UniProtKB/TrEMBL annotation:
Enzyme class: isomerase
Residue stretches making up the UvrD-like helicase C-terminal domain: 295-544
Organism: Nocardioides antri
Residue stretches making up the HRDC domain: 614-688
Top-level taxon in the UniProt lineage: Bacteria
Protein name per Swiss-Prot or TrEMBL: DNA 3'-5' helicase
Pfam families reported for this sequence: HRDC (PF00570), UvrD-helicase (PF00580), UvrD_C (PF13361)
Gene3D superfamilies found in the cross-reference section: 1.10.10.160, HRDC domain, P-loop containing nucleotide triphosphate hydrolases, PCRA, domain 4
Catalysis: reaction(s): Couples ATP hydrolysis with the unwinding of duplex DNA by translocating in the 3'-5' direction; ATP + H2O = ADP + phosphate + H(+)
Molecular function GO labels: 3'-5' DNA helicase activity; ATP binding; ATP hydrolysis activity; DNA binding
Length: 688
């Protein structure tokens, strides 16, 4: 056997049967349907390396295309390790921009327009020309919609009709207004001799389509194409790929229809699903062996896709290659605060068993859901990182709201209003309304952040009868300080979208109730099914431990009107199934004395109804309160910032004798231990 032959066989021997089938399919057209965790990157990099080692491919004639710079870098690194370092692995935009920079001056005789990374400044000018008032959130939503239109080959003139047909909306703006902004933006861009990221693809396609010499040169350069994540290809990217191919079919595409979660941004899975129709003679291969997750997790993911109205026909049925693990947990909660508390407790338990925070993720549908989890993890001293978004108190709309609330508290301008009404008034002045805006986007995300602040105010009022606006602002400042601690190895908080392509040992899919998953504005069959796929992506991020949670109400004490997501119906045990009248048997916090449901947040913290006789040492409780008052005066903070009454009651009940026992009490986190632990233990020991 030749040296090349032995290298090729060594490459193939490292693959499973289906992966090997991919690697040996060196001539196109080839379609690979690769389920989550099935080793698709391994399969396609071995295919390219096998082609290089057998002499079928010249490395410089291969173009591997993916969607993110990170994925392209991973492809290049793996190909170098497999002995194929000369292969080009790039994103669509990177490959197109490289060609455009070379050919544009030769074709047009002018300099290439400068590339802008942000549309916002030009959009701001475009909207001003139209007399339209647009804040940063609306500008970002308009930018996203223009991006969708351009990658979908939809121009300003056609936008109103097509947007209407597809149910697209930008905040409360009529489609005709969006079209005018789109047209004005294009005018501004041309005047400034600039191009945006979508223009990179459009201009490259234009050069290739209009100049045969350029097209021939590009086609001589690249003879073999591999495209990863093909379910995310847009009409514009598909058109550019066709121009690169020039009628050839030496193309291998890889994707998973069950992970199509970017249709709102222009992705069109039909290019993957209909690939054999476009390319007769296609060899279609399925990767179904899941190496990431336990059989229990894989079984739940398969059942999710196979649910009523599900997309089993579009995806593959995974088969786990891992040893059996524990059952997937499905846990309902009375409200979002209780849900976050449960998740944080489970994270702490995983840590005690040896799972590092960096191998744990809490995933949810929208960024605003992170706040309760940030709070609960901070209370327990568990480090965390927010992926794909700023931490809650770092978000611009939250920072501005806290500044305005602080100003209102100091000025006394709202002193004639009940303080809760004052909070709502300040938020209302920024654009918050009791009802959420329609549609998705930055406007909706900003509303969710304001709504979270309104909810915090309601919870604070419930726990503190004598609270005022200044006390609430102090509490917000405390939360912000505790949540901004650096985290080198922290629990990941991320949306399902931001989690795609990642994996962890333990995953919590949280907030999985109807109205959130699927989201309320998913009002068509296609958008509802995309929400199902989004949950599928979240669940398949877990290697060993998967927990799915939901809450029956947003706030403590509210009526339990929410149901677990309709997608969970085939997965839930009978005790958690929705009941007649729409409510689910959710896990309810109950009194340790009489087992009745607990209503307020304070009752839940104490673990008993407020009308029960106290079990704590009332004398010790009074001494702790006296110490707290003195410490609060010294620190110039409200007393509840030191400890709430509910926490002092628990200390007086359990009488902790050391730091470990004190840390186990609800409401006593590392920051509290550091500031007050020694003093509290001294008060307790003096009493005993």
């Amino acid at each position: 056997m030749t040296n090349h032959g032995s290298q090729a066989e060594a490459l193939l021997s490292a693959l499973d049967p289906e992966q090997r089938q991919v690697a040996e399919a060196l001539r196109g057209p080839v379609r690979v349907l690769a389920g989550a965790g099935t080793g698709k990157t391994r399969a396609i990099t071995h295919r390219i390396a096998h082609g290089v080692h057998t002499g079928v491919y010249a490395p410089t004639e291969v173009l591997a295309v993916t969607f993110t710079t990170r994925a392209a870098g991973e492809l290049r690194q793996r190909l170098r390790q497999l002995g194929a370092p000369g292969v080009q692995a790039r994103t669509f935009h990177s490959a197109a921009l490289r060609q455009l920079r070379y050919f544009w001056p030769h074709v047009h005789g002018t300099e290439l327009p400068s590339l802008t990374e942000s549309k916002l400044a030009m959009l701001a000018l475009a909207t001003r020309r139209l007399g339209l008032r647009a804040d940063q959130a609306l500008l970002r939503d308009l930018a996203s919609e223009i991006e969708w239109a351009k990658v979908s080959n939809v121009g300003p003139d056609d936008y109103p009709l097509i947007a209407g047909r597809q149910g697209r909306a930008v905040s409360d703006q009529p489609p005709e207004t969006v079209a005018k902004v789109f047209s004005s933006y294009e005018d501004v861009k041309r005047e400034q001799h600039r191009m945006d990221m979508e223009d990179v693809l459009l201009f490259t396609a234009g050069v290739l389509a209009s100049d045969e010499r350029v097209a021939a040169q590009v086609r001589r350069q690249y003879k073999w194409f591999v495209v990863d994540e093909f379910q995310d290809v847009s009409p514009l990217q598909s058109a550019l790929l066709d121009l690169w191919l020039g009628g050839r079919d030496e193309l291998c595409v890889v994707g998973d229809p069950a992970q199509t979660i970017y249709s709102f941004a222009g992705a069109d899975a039909s290019y993957l699903l209909d690939f054999p129709k476009r390319y007769p003679g296609t060899q279609s291969i399925e990767l179904v062996r899941n190496y990431r997750s336990t059989p229990q997790i894989v079984s739940s993911a398969n059942a999710l896709l196979a649910g009523v109205g599900g997309s089993r026909s579009a995806g593959v049925e995974l088969r786990s290659q891992q040893p059996a693990g524990q059952a997937v947990r499905f846990v309902g909660h009375p409200d979002e605060v209780a849900e976050a508390s449960y998740v944080a407790d489970q994270v702490a338990a995983l840590q005690r068993k040896g799972t590092s925070p960096g191998q744990i993720a809490v995933l949810f549908r929208i960024n605003a859901q992170s706040e309760h989890f940030e709070d609960a993890l901070s209370d327990r001293g568990i480090p965390y990182v927010v992926r794909g978004a700023a931490r809650f108190f770092e978000r611009p709309e939250v920072r501005e709201a806290v500044v305005r609330l602080r100003g209102a508290a100091r000025s006394g301008e709202v002193s004639d209003l009940p303080w809760l009404e004052a909070v709502r008034g300040v938020l209302g002045g920024m654009g918050w309304t009791a009802e959420p805006p329609t549609g998705r986007g930055q406007v909706r995300d900003r509303w969710e952040s304001w709504q979270a602040l309104a909810t915090q105010a309601e919870e604070f009022a419930t726990e503190h009868d004598d609270a005022d606006l200044a006390a609430f602002v102090d509490d917000l400042d405390r939360r912000a300080a505790e949540q901004h601690a650096p985290a080198a190895d922290g629990v990941t908080l991320a949306t399902f979208h931001a989690a795609k392509g990642l994996e962890w040992d333990a995953v919590f899919c949280a907030g999985v109730q109807d109205g959130t998953v699927p989201i309320t504005y998913a009002d068509r069959d296609a958008t509802v099914e995309e929400e199902r796929r989004l949950l599928y992506v979240g669940m398949t991020r877990a290697r060993r431990d998967l927990t799915v949670t939901w809450s029956a109400a947003r706030n403590p004490g509210q009526a339990a009107r929410r149901q677990p997501s309709r997608f969970l119906t085939p997965l839930l045990p009978e005790r958690e199934q929705p009941q007649p009248g729409g409510r689910a048997r959710s896990k309810v916090a109950r009194c340790r004395e009489c087992s009745q449901p607990l209503g307020t947040a304070a009752e839940k913290k104490r673990g008993r109804c407020s009308h029960h006789p106290v079990r704590y040492d009332e004398g010790l409780f009074e001494r702790l309160k006296a110490w707290r008052l003195e410490r609060a005066r010294d620190d110039e903070v409200p007393a509840y910032v030191v400890f709430t009454d509910a926490t002092l009651e628990l200390i007086a009940e359990h009488k902790p004798g050391d730091e470990r026992a004190l840390r186990a009490i609800n409401g006593v986190g590392p920051s509290k231990i550091e500031r007050y632990g020694e003093d509290v233990l001294a008060v307790v020991s003096a009493d005993t």
